[in-house]
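User: Please predict the structure of the protein below. I'd like the answer in structure-token form so I can feed it into my own downstream comparison script.

Assistant: Understood. Taking the following sequence of 194 residues as input:
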Amino acid sequence: MAGRPVDHQRRAELLDAVVDYTVEHGFSDLSWRPVAAALGVSPTTLVHRFGTKEQMLVAILGRLRERIFAATNDAIGEKPDLATAARAVWTRTSDPRRGAEFRLFFAVYGRALQAPEQFAGFLDRVVADWMNALREAQGPGTDPATATRTATLVIATIRGLLLDLLATGDRDRVQDAAESFLTTLEHQDTGQRR
């Protein structure tokens, strides 16, 4: 006897709603009943769509990462230089309206680091997506090792600045540091184009 076929569209809609709920409420107390009640479905529906609570969390992580990457890619546009790409990423991620989303991102990142075997897919892609985009933004003439090193520094700097901003709320100080860093990238891009 075969089970019901999976309705992928309904699962995707529920996943987006679960991500929205988790962005608003956090995931430390994430449990079936409150999520189901907030979404107007039964806990059984969530179990049917996601399996275990851990599987739901993995799905949340994946969708959150996809959302952040897609939204930032939209802001960057096609074929930007490194400085333009980095500035677009910083502008998007440091937007106060995105604070809850990135607090969740860092909370989830921390959990994934504590259970890397459970969250291997998230950890594999959380840096790789940005790494590839930022290497490409440096142009085909950039030495691959240099492009990787520079992309690593950009990712680490932006994530560090964002974590500082979320932890302290000191927007003026962090924005000043971010501007200094981004200006350095602009000068670097100008020098490479000469």
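That's the full token string. The mean pLDDT is 86.
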